[in-house]
Structures are given as C-alpha cells and as structure tokens.
Amino acid sequence: MKRIVVVAATVALLAGTLAGVAHAGTTPADPKAFVYIGWPNEGQTMPAGKPFRVWFGLRNMGVAPSNVEFPNTGHHHLLVDTDLPSMDQPIPSDRNHLHFGAGETETLIQLPPGKHTLQLLMGDAHHVPHNPPVYSKKITIYVK
Prior knowledge:
- It contains one helix and nine strands; from the N terminus they run αβββββββββ.
- The chain is mostly beta strands.
- It comes from Paraburkholderia acidisoli.
- This is DUF4399 domain-containing protein.
C-alpha cells in the first residue's frame, strides 16, 4: 500500500511541475544565444515628449527578416510594459509587443511619463519564440 501512495504522490508532483513549464516553439536556437538591450540602461531616465533610441544586442545567433528561414537566426520583438508571452505561439503584435520583422536592430520609441519596462524576445521566421527561447533581462526605465 505504501508503494502505491508514493507512486501516486510522485505522479501528482510531476503533473503539477509540468503544468507550469513554458513550452517553446520548434525552431532551434543556440543554447548560448544571448539577446540584450544595449540602450537605454537599467534605471535610465529618458526625456518625455520625444522619441528615444533603443538598440538591441545579440550574440551567438543571427538576425534575419521574418519569413526568412535560415538556421540559427530570428528577429527582434520589443516587449513594452508586459510579461513574456506564451512560448509556443506566435508573439502578439500590439502596442506592448513591437515586431521588427525587417531585421532591425534598433528603433525610436516614445512613451508617456512614468515607469516602464522593456524586454527583448527573439522570434523565428513565423514570430514564434525559439527552442530554447531567447529573451533578455527585463529592464525598468523612467520617462520624465
């Protein structure tokens, strides 16, 4: 009887653990790939009322436009004031999920005054995160 209880507890634990795991897309990425926001920096204060530059950095992976399928490449998505989306679905396209499907590595954005977060997420040719997902640290900036 003890053996059945232990097996049941183990199965329940595994099911609970797997339920919280984010699944990734099917396009492989180099496990050493690293994407980062080069500017602005964490805690930076940016001017209100005018656009400011955001530039993207990437190591151990290449940048290609959307709809171009080439190994170990993808394109940038800038997440503004939002959390990471589902990793097994196309990245949404809205005011919080900015797509750079032409292969851009920088942009100008304008945000209202206040506290904001920025994060990069690489997407494959079809805007789905890679496997493993390649995303930056989320940074906080201030607009005044």
